[in-house]
Design a protein that fits this description.
Largest sheet of chain A: none
Radius of gyration of chain A: 11 Å
Oligomer: heterotrimer
Chains: A mainly alpha, B mainly alpha, C alpha/beta
Structural class of chain C: alpha/beta
Number of strands of chain A: 0
CATH topology of chain A: Non-ribosomal Peptide Synthetase Peptidyl Carrier Protein, Chain A
CATH architecture of chain A: Orthogonal Bundle
Structural class of chain A: mainly alpha
Strand order of the largest sheet of chain C: 2-1-3-4-5
Order of helices and strands of chain A: HHHH
Order of helices and strands of chain C: HHEHHEHEHHHHHHHEHEHHH
Number of helices of chain C: 16
């Protein structure tokens, strides 16, 4: 999967979780950029991403990713 | 030794001197020896050995899990992780909360006609077991999840596990966050020394001047609840919150100040909690590291587990998308809150008052959020206005105090509920104005001093909310800064409760 | 280098200012227990005292050092306080020997007649030890006195060593008397009650010579330590039985002490045998059955001082500034007395 494709899928997941069809994310997006993205939504988001890409994060990864860019990197790693 | 004792002062001075003259590479060894000495002075050899056992198991587990990634071991990394985590949990419960399980067992045996002649087990726990056990568990899990390196050096492991400031009252440190500064051997700089000492002084002000005094009011009302109905109870609950806050956060300030002197970065445990507008926010600002620990090591793993995913799917299918999210979340929250209560004490007053009560409130808050928004818009309340926020803060404080009243309920859950009954039995706001508050065990001079101190606390915490006070202080001119510091220093020296005229002030969270 | 120097100076300056404020605060919160004679003693010039009297409130009320000086030309100083506990006598002698070498010590036997043990209160100890300069001697004095009184402290006697730990809580009781210092006239207490009298009789005074001699073991222990100190340092001591009424129980302890001392060949002066010589007026000269009034004190002092100078060799100190100091002290005492007697 290319990076654009990853982001295409990611945007879909974000839009679904946060109920906003216009939402898009990029490498530098963090939780402070999206109002409803609190610690409780975070885990739902991560689980949704796991399901969308067919991968698994461990909890350590869930809590240590700093922005969406790191997320995309990790997804790319795991898809291989 | 208590954090505010003469012995501790000497101990810190010697440690700091040794630390500073040591070369950078070996400074952490000074801290390690200091921690070992601190632990050995504080408890019997047996308890120290128990602590050492937990640390050894954790250390071995960390090394083994790391190695299991490189080559095949007899048991999998997962098994090692599970065993080590269970061992630490077991040790903590066995040494601390065993009566929670023994009491019902004894009752059960009694009902079967078997007399055991035992009511409760008196066990002494190693100091700080509630803190270091959870820290050990977080370390093991972080190593397992590969977000931190395993510490292969036994001495460094000892320092991390038994770091003497943390053993007294926390906070819950994470290996990955503290690794860089703990072993760096940062020299004691002028800035860290002065700011660290300022923080220690502020902590001493809170714990030595306010905590004990306001505690007298709490003691009076709690000793004789039937004589103090209605608003007396309200006031006692709120006074207890302040007592606990000044005591606990004061202790934390002393700990943080000391760590700052040694250049060790620690996570904050309190973040202006009384400015919270909801219970959920409150627990993000009060005992912060405990909440974070439970989120990362209990709630998230639960939510991510297969069982919970199943709950979510079932709920979504039956009740819709929203419940698909909320059902597992609320279940996870209730379990977490039960554990928070249980951590505070293995008896139902803690489980309810420090746990489930808040869990229910938070869940209700989320469930009823749409209703609240509707009511607010109908009453035309501006949710961003200062007035509304102030109302929310006071409301949160009062609601919080009702839960914490069980923390103080050393006589159990039922007595605590009865206390709530007393609070609701009479409506007597007039006691606030007619001088009855002066008859709660404090002399008028102490009450006046308490009021002054609380005003100082309020002012400083309000300033802190917008910008750290220590930064503000450093921006002042030298005469102004020194005047403030000297005034505070002598305020503590003169009005602090130490010496035989008072009971030795002890830290409540030190018993954990 | 300049930066580090500046920082060191800042730290030292801050500590110094804090220390200065601390001494001021300490002074204000101090409760002197209205007996500063121990602290006044430190102000005396070295090696000027001829006679040092150590004892309880009887010395404090009955002996006027300045009158004795006026009368005989020698320097007397009284180290005394209410209910001074027995063990402290030795330590006060040690303290005195640090800066003075008196020709004679007068020891008030009333301390020996008191019950000791739980009768001794922490205030009785603090009256003395809080006024002593910090030294190893002071620590030993505190430890022994607390042991004698059977007082157990929760933090290793630290409240006594660092008396500020106790006094800092006195902010609640702060009054003008904390800030104004009462004058002490070389150990004599001249306050408003000193110029009052109670009528009594000769037969009411003194001690029962027929009382059963009883010395509690704990009193004997510390008394022996005192005597061995006196012996090992070859100090000249005169024991004084003050002019007062002793209860039956106290008489018993006193009798035992007197017997004990006589057997060892010590000198004892019983003031109760000298009422005629003193020309005591029993309607005016006693303030109560334990203490004399100003008038009685003047009489007792004259007679006792004469006795001392007649029986002991006192070295004459000829020193202009010293004489001037005592002259001034006497003048202060005289004017204070005049205003009392108005």
């Amino acid at each position: 999967m290319s990076r654009e494709e990853i982001y295409g899928e990611l945007n879909k997941v974000f839009q679904e979780i946060f109920d906003d069809d216009t939402l898009t994310v990029n490498d530098s997006t963090t939780s402070s950029d999206i109002e409803d993205w609190d610690s409780l939504e975070h885990i739902n988001l991560m689980m949704a991403i796991e399901e969308a890409f067919g991968i698994t994060f461990n909890i350590g990864e869930v809590t240590t990713m700093k922005n969406v860019g790191e997320m995309a990197d990790k997804i790319a790693e795991k898809i291989k | 030794m208590s954090l505010i004792s003469f012995e501790f002062l000497i101990f810190i001075c010697i440690t700091a001197a040794a630390y500073q003259v040591c070369t950078k590479k070996y400074r952490w060894i000074v801290l390690m020896f200091a921690s070992v000495i601190f632990v050995c002075c504080a408890q019997s050899i047996l308890l120290t050995l128990l602590m050492a056992l937990q640390i050894t198991v954790t250390y071995a587990a960390g090394v083994a899990i790391a190695r299991s990634r490189e080559r095949q071991l007899i048991v999998s990394g997962k098994t090692i992780m599970l065993l080590a985590v269970l061992f630490n949990i077991g040790a903590m419960i066995a040494l601390k909360d065993i009566n929670f399980f023994i009491r019902p067992l004894i009752l059960l045996l009694k009902s079967c006609g078997i007399a055991t002649g035992v009511h409760v087990v008196h066990a002494d726990a190693p100091m700080g077991i509630s803190y270091y056990s959870l820290i050990m568990i977080s370390y093991i899990l972080d190593v397992y999840w590969n977000v931190t390196n395993a510490q292969k050096n036994a001495g460094r492991m000892i320092l991390f596990s038994a770091f003497f400031p943390v053993l007294t009252s926390g906070p819950f440190i994470r290996y990955r966050d503290i690794e860089s500064s703990m072993y760096a051997g940062n020299r004691i700089t002028y800035l860290n020394l002065t700011q660290g000492l300022q923080r220690v002084l502020w902590g001493m002000f809170k714990s030595m001047v306010i905590s004990g005094r306001i505690g007298t009011i709490v003691d009076t009302v709690y000793a004789n609840p039937a004589s103090f109905l209605g608003f007396y109870q309200f006031i006692a609950y709120m006074a207890f919150v302040i007592q606990l806050y000044t005591n606990f956060s004061g202790c934390i300030d002393i700990i943080m100040g000391i760590c700052q002197i040694f250049g060790i970065e620690m996570p904050e445990n309190f973040n202006s909690p009384f400015f919270s507008t909801s219970i959920a926010e409150f627990w993000r600002r009060w005992h912060v590291t405990l909440g974070l620990w439970l989120k990362d090591y209990v709630l998230y793993p639960l939510l991510k587990s297969k069982a919970f995913r199943k709950i979510g799917k079932t709920a979504k299918a039956k009740y819709g998308k929203k419940w698909g999210k909320q059902a597992p979340l609320f279940t996870g929250l209730m379990i977490s809150w039960f554990l928070i209560g249980f951590w505070h004490g293995g008896s139902w007053n803690y489980i309810w008052g420090c746990g489930i009560y808040y869990g229910i409130l938070i869940i209700m808050g989320q469930l009823l959020e749409p209703q609240f928004v509707k009511i607010n818009s109908r009453l035309k309340i501006n949710r961003d206005s200062r007035g509304w926020k102030t109302f929310q803060r006071i409301r949160t404080f009062i609601i919080f105090s009702w839960g914490l009243s069980f923390f103080r309920s050393y006589d159990g859950l039922i007595a605590g509920i009865r206390r709530w009954g007393y609070a609701l039995s009479t409506f007597n706001p007039q006691i606030i104005f007619n001088g009855s508050l002066l008859k709660l065990g404090l002399e008028p001079t102490d009450v006046a001093l308490l009021v002054v101190s609380l005003v100082i606390l309020l002012v400083v915490d309000t300033l802190q909310f917008k910008k750290p006070v220590i930064e503000r202080l450093s921006e002042l001119s030298l005469p102004a800064r020194w005047t403030i510091l000297l005034a505070l220093l002598f305020f503590v020296i003169i009005f602090g409760q130490y010496g035989t005229a008072y009971n030795a002030a002890s830290f409540i969270y030190e018993k954990f | 280098m300049g930066e580090t120097k500046k920082k060191c100076i800042k730290i030292i300056a801050f500590c110094l200012i804090a220390l200065m404020i601390f001494t001021l605060v300490f002074r204000i919160l101090w409760i002197s227990y209205s007996s500063g004679s121990y602290r006044e003693f430190y102000k005396e010039k070295d090696n000027t005292a001829n006679v040092v009297l150590i004892g309880t409130s009887t010395i404090r009320r009955d002996w006027i050092s300045l009158e004795a000086w006026r009368e005989t030309g020698y320097n007397y100083f009284a180290m005394c306080s209410v209910a001074q506990p027995l063990p402290l006598i030795k330590y006060l002698m040690i303290e005195s020997e640090k800066t003075q070498s008196p020709d004679l010590y007068v020891i008030d036997l009333r301390s020996m007649s008191l019950p000791g043990g739980s009768y001794v209160k922490s205030g009785d100890i603090r009256r003395v030890t809080d006024n002593m300069k910090i030294s190893a001697n002071r620590k030993a004095a505190i430890d022994d006195s607390l042991k004698f009184a059977g007082i157990k402290t929760s933090n290793g006697n630290r409240d006594y060593y660092f008396s500020f730990m106790y006094y800092h809580s006195m902010w609640k009781n702060i009054s003008l008397s904390n800030i104004t210092r009462s004058s002490v006239y070389k150990g004599y207490c001249l306050d408003s009650v000193q110029t009052t009298s109670t009528a009594t009789t000769a037969s009411a005074m003194g001690w029962d010579h027929n009382a059963t001699p009883t010395m509690p073991a704990i009193n004997k222990k510390y008394f022996d330590e005192l005597l061995s100190y006196i012996n090992s340092h070859k100090l000249k001591v005169l024991f004084l039985i003050p002019p007062m009424q002793f209860s039956e129980e106290d008489s018993g302890r006193l009798a035992a002490t007197v017997d004990y001392l006589k057997a060892k060949g010590y000198n004892i002066y019983d003031a109760n045998d000298h009422y005629a010589e003193m020309n005591i007026d029993f309607s005016k000269d006693f303030r109560n059955v334990h203490h004399m009034s100003q008038w009685g004190a003047q009489k007792f002092t004259k007679v006792f001082a004469k006795y001392i100078t007649a029986h002991y060799n006192l070295t004459k100190h000829v020193n202009a500034s010293e004489t001037a100091q005592w002259n001034k002290a006497y003048a202060d005492y005289e004017s204070a007395l005049k205003s009392r007697l108005k």
